[in-house]
Amino acid sequence: MPKIVELLFDCDNTLVLSEELAFEACAELANEILAKYGKSARYTGPELMQDFVGQNFRGVVTGMETKYDFTLSDEEREGYVKQEEDRVIATLKAKAQPCVGANKELEKLYESKKYGMAVVSSSALRRVVASVEKVDQAKFFPKDHIFSAATSLPKPTTKPDPAIYLFACEKIGVKPSECIAVEDSKSGTLSAVRAGIHTIAYVGSYHEQSKAKEVADMLVSNGAKVVMNHWSEFEKCLAEIEAM
Predict the structure, then answer these.
(1) In the Cβ-directed half-sphere of 204, how many Cα atoms lie within 13 Å?
(2) Is residue 6 a contact partner of residue 115, using CB atoms and an 8 Å limit?
(3) Strand-pair partners of 228
(4) Which residues pair with 208 in a beta bridge?
(5) Taking every pair of C-alpha atoms in the chain, what is the biggest distance, in angstroms?
(6) Which of 73, 86, 110, 192 has CB 3.0 to 4.6 Å from 199, enough for a Cys bridge?
């Protein structure tokens, strides 16, 4: 295996406990869209999260268009994406917390200077930056090493498309095989694996042990190399992959 030189972290529910907060705000806007187009379906935050976890709001809207058989113009869709971004950022700035143990491990990695570190997210760049700033993680990442599938790419996309990981590797100047990604969702894991990146499945943000086990098994079946139940296990997981 090539020497690992770069660590690539998903943001939502991997570095920052943001997914539930974000989906509460997303559900409100999603329901407004469904109502406008005469659809009776309505979502709670957890229901929307279950259907679309790991995707950005552009992916959520596109998924709803397909599921409920309606079509937005490109202008309308992008308008809703901007509205969602503003609502979610306001919520995250008020309430976001780091994933338990993440800051301690990031501090150790940052001080060791052994690896480069970057954030690779589906979420809009403004949202990702607001999240890591709120939980005091921005200092660990160069400003130009925070990447967004929704914002950074010439053509916006969302995970599981591997485009954002391939783009990040190109901009950083590393090969995918020289990287390890940390992901908590199926779409994120598939994105990293399809890019050729060794992937750690993080399940520490799932509250119930049975759910964490279910997600862990699913992420491994989709290509994750090892499972991390808590951030305190990161060094062990990293060593396991480097020894493969």
Answers:
(1) 22
(2) yes
(3) 202
(4) none
(5) 56
(6) 192
The side-by-side arrangement of strands in the sheet containing 198-202 is 146-148, 116-121, 6-9, 179-183, 198-202, 226-228
Count of CA atoms in the C-beta half-sphere (13 A) of 43: 24
pTM score of the predicted model: 0.86
Q: What residue has token string 């969702």? A: 185
Q: Write out pLDDT tens, residues 210-222.
A: 999 999 999 999 9
Contact 192, 184 (CB under 8 A): no
CB 190 within 8 A of CB 224: no
Give the distance from CA 122 to its chain's centroid. Answer: 5
Q: Look at residues 32, 157, 10 and name the one whose alpha carbon lies nearest to residue 87.
A: 32
Helix runs in the chain, H state only: 19-36, 45-52, 57-68, 74-95, 102-112, 125-134, 163-172, 186-194, 209-221, 234-242
d(CA 32, CA 28) in angstroms, rounded, equals: 7
Which two structure tokens, joined as six digits, stand for 89?
Answer: 């950022």
Residue type, 15: L
Tokens coding 38: 């005469």
Parallel, antiparallel, or unpaired for β 116-121 and 6-9?
parallel
